[in-house]
Each structure stands twice: as structure tokens, then as C-alpha cells.
Amino acid sequence: MSKLIDTKPVIPHVAILTSSGMGHLQPSFRLAALLVNNNCRVTFVTTHPTVSLAESNSISSFLSAFPQIISKTLNLLPMDPTTTKMTDPFFLQWDAIRHSSHLLSPLLASSSPPLTALVTDVMIASTFVPATTDLTLPNYILFTSSAKMLSFLVCYPTILAAIESNKKSDHILSDATIHINDSLIIPTSCFPPPLFYPKQLFNTQFAANAKQMMRCDGILINSFEGLETESLEQLNGGNIINGLPPVIPIGPLSPCDFEQGPGLSWLDNQLDNSVVYVSFGSRTSMSREQILELGNGLLKSGTKFLWVVKDKKVDKDDNGGVEEVVGYEFIEKVKDKGLVVKTWVDQIGILSHRAVGGFVTHCGWNSVVEAALCGVPMLAWPQGSDQRINATVVESRGLGLWVKSWGWSWEEVVKAEEIGNKIRELMIDERFKIRTVHVKEEAMKADKNVGDLIN
Ligand code: UDP
Ligand code: UDP
């Protein structure tokens, strides 16, 4: 007798639980688009209110571009900001989202067709993964940084315990080296700086998220073989930590059509590979003093430039005109040498433009992957958070330069002369171009392994 086969079609239906900040939303949008293009239903949960205009604008554009996606809103419970010592509005928002995690299961319980999997952003994993166990669904975590950073994160509870048992003061030493194994050695100077204060919320959440990573069904990461071959192999080979769920590379995540901006005619008029693009992502602002030095450095580099200036961390507070920030005199000097803007730009559109030949970046992971996808060499200038760890990937893959002596954004002002010299070096060194073209080819070939989620 032939075996009975259940032929009832199961429509995969994945709920994506996002957090806050464009560096987290952008990969969530792109993952949702990838799933939709693979005949999967998607429910997309956003949180309300958002911190920045960039977030609310992009959520609206995303949902209009994908009417087939089911949108749900998690209305955040109000938080008392005085209960934490942190002032960063994005950190506070992640905390507010975590405190509203119990509202999620009721929001998703009646999904139709029934959900088949959940994908939770790493920032909210510590509370969202436990809060959704009653839904009895496979739960994947979307990790929005590098595989190198993931290696560090999953080892962090052990690192912290070792540091705690040895330390003689309240602070972690900033000049030590953490030896995880022979191919993963991380100087403490590369640690995300909030980790130096073990009792603060960032630190406790970081460790809690790390523990939660071990309990999920898989970790989706916006990286790929050709970019982080060794780290991915080590993670999946059990060399970093035993018992880690599968790390599934889904990068480089492709941009969606709705992200396209109006185009910049100024760029169209420039020669191939002649322009350096300068941007520090969606939530890094610079001191006025550093902005001044950077502007002069760009002029000294003798390279044409497209510079996105950011004066405030949150765009809603960033109301002044670009001239007020860089100075009228500077705008006078720039003339046809460059373009300075103070708006949201279509970064992928810029990086993929034939005229762009270099990228001065803070090394937010999305920016690094986008530059790799477009074959653009980078001058890594990490400003904070996971960016030094990401810069090690840029450096070790030969995708550009990293001047380690340039401190974190609050430590020192890097002088114009030095900035100009390094930009010149970036633009003329053929080795970076050769390496980035090679990695771009690898990026084009990379498999986006969403099979586990939708089968
Ligand atoms: N981005 C953009 N236009 C801007 C600023 C940022 O499209 O004017 C995008 C960028 O392409 C990337 C994301 O916002 O996808 C920023 O993420 P990243 O990890 O690079 O840095 P973060 O903003 O999280 O520090
Ligand atoms: N991270 C984490 N849990 C936390 C805080 C941070 O896992 O509670 C990791 C995560 O990989 C994140 C990185 O540390 O991408 C850097 O954190 P940051 O606060 O700078 O946020 P991001 O730059 O990713 O927006």
C-alpha cells in the first residue's frame, strides 16, 4: 500500500519583528522583499512611535510598495526616561520596545493564514524570543552586523565573566586583547564603547541577547561567503562556541526599488571613479570642529566629493541649513569641487554610480555590505558602537584603509591634512579597486539562503 502523503499546500507565512534605527529597518525591509519574491506571505510588525523621520518615511514607502504585506503596529507603552542613565534616543527606544514585548503574542495570535515562522531583530531578541514561545513557532534572529561581530557577541558572556573575575576596577581595561581562538583575537579597544561600563543597560542587554542567540532556531545574517568566509566557517563549524544555532548568510541583501532617490545630476557630470562619497550613516553626527576639519580635508584631497553632513543624531532635530553647519565661506570654496548635502540620500544609488570611486564610511555594517556589493573601496573611519569590529573586516579583506590612530568620535579631532592624505591614498591605490571588484563578483554569486524559513 502506498504511503499517504499530506498534499495540503502550506503557504509559508513569516512575521518579521523589527526594532528601531535605519540600520535595523533597512535590512528588515530587504529581507521582507526577498521573502515576498520567494512566494512567501509576510507580516511586518513595526513599532509606534518611531524615533526619526527617516524611519517613519521609509516604513510608509515600504508598505505602499508592498501592499501584499500584512502590516501590524506595536504601540509602545510609555517609558520613563529617568529610569535609565542612557540618553541616546535609539537606545531608549530599544528599551521601550523590549518593555512592550508582552503585547506581541496577542497581536500575532490570530494571523491568517497561520504563521509558520518568526524573525526577530537582534536588538529586541532578549525579551521577544521568550515572549513569543507560546506561539510555538520557529524563531529566527536577524543579526544586522558582521559575522565577526556575531562571533564576539556570542562569546561575550564568557568574556565578561573572565573580565569580571580578574578586574581590579569598575571599568574594563581598554588596552587588553581577548583571545577567543587563534583566528579570532579582538583587542578590547575594538569593543563597542558602552561595554566598558558593565552595569549599564547596553551591557546587560548585550549579554542577554547573546544568551538568547543560543536558543533560537537560526541566525540570519546580512553577510556572504566572499566577504566573511572565515568567520562564517568558524561560527558554523563550532569553533567559536558550542551549540550555536545555524548561522544563515542571506547577504548581500538587495535594495528595494522604493529606496531609489531622485538621482543627482551633479554626479552624472563627473568622470568615472573620480568622486569620493562621504557619509556616516543614519545616526552619527559630528562635532562642528570635526565637520570643519573634514570639509577642509576634502578640499585638500584634490578629489571631487559628495558629502552628506549630519549635525544631529536624530533628523527631527536637524533643522539648520547646510551652509549654517559647514559655513558660507566653505560653500564658496567648494564651487565645482564637490556637492555638500544635509538630507537623506539614496546611498545605494550613489555607491552604484559609475562616478563614485571611494567611500569614507563609519563602517555601519549595512554601509560596508553596500560598498562591497557596489565594488567601492572604503576609508574606514569608525565613530562608535560595532564599527571598529566591522572595520577589521574591511581591512583584512583588502577593501580599503583604516587609520587606527583616529580615535572614537568623542576622543579627538582628526586634522584636515591627514584626512586629505588618506582620501588621496584611497582613490589612487589600485589594489583596493582590484579587491573590491573581486568581492563584488562574489557578492553577485552569493546564495541568499532563505530556504529554511519558507520550506
Ligand atoms: N542610508 C541611506 N541614506 C542616508 C543615510 C543612510 O540610504 O542618507 C542607509 C544606508 O544605505 C544603510 C542604512 O541607511 O542601509 C544605515 O545603516 P548602517 O548600518 O550603514 O549605519 P547606521 O545608520 O546604523 O549607523
Ligand atoms: N548589540 C546587541 N544587543 C544589544 C546592543 C547591541 O546584540 O543590546 C549588537 C548588535 O549586533 C548591534 C551592535 O551590537 O548591531 C552595535 O550596537 P549599536 O547600539 O551600535 O547599534 P547599531 O549600530 O547596530 O544600530
TrEMBL record:
Keyword Transferase found: yes
InterPro entries given in the database record: UDP-glycosyltransf_plant, UDP_glucos_trans, UDP_glycos_trans_CS
Alphabetical UniProt keywords: Glycosyltransferase, Transferase
Its EC number(s): 2.4.1.-
Pfam families: UDPGT (PF00201)
Molecular function via GO: UDP-glucosyltransferase activity
Gene3D superfamilies xrefs: Glycogen Phosphorylase B (3.40.50.2000)
Family: Belongs to the UDP-glycosyltransferase family.
Protein name according to UniProt: Glycosyltransferase
